[in-house]
Amino acid sequence: MRTFGLAIALLVLLQGPPLRAVQPDEILPDARLEERARNLSRELRCMVCQNQSIDDSDAPLARDLRLLVRERLKEGDSDKQVLDFLTTRYGDFVLLNPPLNAKTFLLWILPAGLLVVGGIVLVLAMRRGGAAQDSAVPASPLTAEEERKIARLLDSDPRTKA
Question: Radius of gyration over alpha carbons of the chain, in Å?
């Protein structure tokens, strides 16, 4: 038990801070600009990885986008101007949380719609299952001849004798 505890403690100690894709040569000397750049990088999708922000991605394109964000910030662009520049260039897909508009309507509505349709299908299936059981032909009682046959079978079966 003690060995297990030591192993867990060693794993916890060896686990360092999470690694980030941002390289030291990308970091801006101005802490405020760097913080804005990191916040923007967390909002932008890596076009290669697609499920990661450019802040977390090691892909060369993500690095290029991080550098572009920092360059635009150094030139004096606001956060909105940087995002507008990138969405003009790459479309709403570059945003991890795209806005609700005519182009992204299905993206936002489809998951909820699928849940609703799935719920309706489930309710209908449950109703049909219940109706099928209700409409089943009730079992008729056994005739005297059928009861005698069952009794003979049970008497001749060695498994039923204790």
Answer: 33
Contact 98, 107 (CB under 8 A): yes
The C-alpha atoms of residue 81 and residue 66 are separated, in whole angstroms, by 15
Residue 44 φ then ψ, to 5°? -105, 135
Residues, the chain, total?
162
Task: Please give the mean pLDDT across all residues of the chain.
Answer: 81
The one-letter amino acid code at 79 reads: D
Q: From CA 99, how far away is CA 28, in angstroms rounded?
A: 29
* Tens-place pLDDT, residues 27-42: 778 889 889 999 999 9
Question: Cβ(62)–Cβ(46) under 8 Å?
Answer: yes
CB atoms within 10 A of CB 127: 10
Q: Hey, how many other C-beta atoms are within 10 angstroms of the C-beta on 46? A: 24
Task: For CA atoms 80, 86, 88, 91, give the dihedral sign.
Answer: negative
33 contact partners, CB below 8 Å, separation of at least 6? 70, 73, 74
H helix intervals, 19-134: 31-43, 60-74, 79-90, 105-134
- What pTM was estimated for this model as a whole? 0.55
Q: What is d(CA 64, CA 58) in angstroms, rounded to the nearest whole number?
A: 10
